[in-house]
Amino acid sequence: MIDVLIIGITFGLIYGLVAISYSLIWQSMNLIHFAQGDLLMIGGFIAITLINLGITNMFPVVLITFVILALIGVVMQNGIYRFIPQKRVVTRIIATLGMGIIFKNLAVLIWGSNSHALPETFFPGSAISIFGISIRPVYYWTLLISITLVVLLMLFLYKTKFGLAVRLTAYNTELAKLMGVNPLLYQSVAFSLAIGITGVSGILCSPISYVNYKMGLAFGVKGFAAAIIGGLDSFPGAIIGGIVIGLIEVAFGQYLSGYIDAVVFGIMIVVLVIRPRGLFGKSKAIKI
What we know:
The chain is mainly α. The protein has a single domain (2-274), classed as Orthogonal Bundle (ABC transporter involved in vitamin B12 uptake, BtuC), CATH 1.10.3470. It has eleven helices and two strands. The chain has a two-stranded antiparallel sheet with strand order 1-2. Strand 1 (128-130) and strand 2 (133-135) form a beta hairpin. Helix 2 packs across helix 3 (58-79), helix 2 crosses helix 9 (215-230) and helix 9 (215-230) runs parallel beside helix 11. The longest helix has 28 residues, at 2-29. It is globular. The mean pLDDT is 86.
């Protein structure tokens, strides 16, 4: 039971980080970015490339991967999405799907179609025994890195003036302009942070799921489901939604092999029917 709980929470935290990235992009840009799964895959491949280049320590690999993916986010936001008006919803969604296809094909061209794995020794430390259950380093490092990213993001958004400007831009773009805030700048910052977090998620899932050009679909879709279940405008909800999906997947996966994804999306649909804004989403009052 404990091992199921540990593995389920590990998977859930990865889904939760992807869900947070969906939520951050949605809150800052009103955009559902369906390329998140493929960017997660790119993060995994970049980590493997850095290791092959001789950078074997986990901490610089995580930091460099985050920075590279954040820079990719800046290029995407300023080179593509800023030129598509928010009112053109369908066009924006198609653009995100197109970016996902581009990243997937780039991965095949650069790294090939074979699966790759991070070395077992990538995550430092040794296994920890709890109640007779051996916990590998990947599991407790996933917990520590996930919590650290969430705490740092919350501190940035709620304890700094820059974060306040990001939230103001998300709340009301026109009001932000009147307050002297450049919405494009802060949308770019929020978008790059989200992409960087997604890239780190790709490292965390690499020892559990081999890195290959097709892996982005599963993690991206389940991260999206976690964001919907928890609420797109709630960061804690995104994490909780991810953990719920991870626990369900691990606990019932062996009994519902091949159908677990249907169960996850069935739960998502039920949540949407009962609470359209998600379990922890906030209802917005509109003054007339």
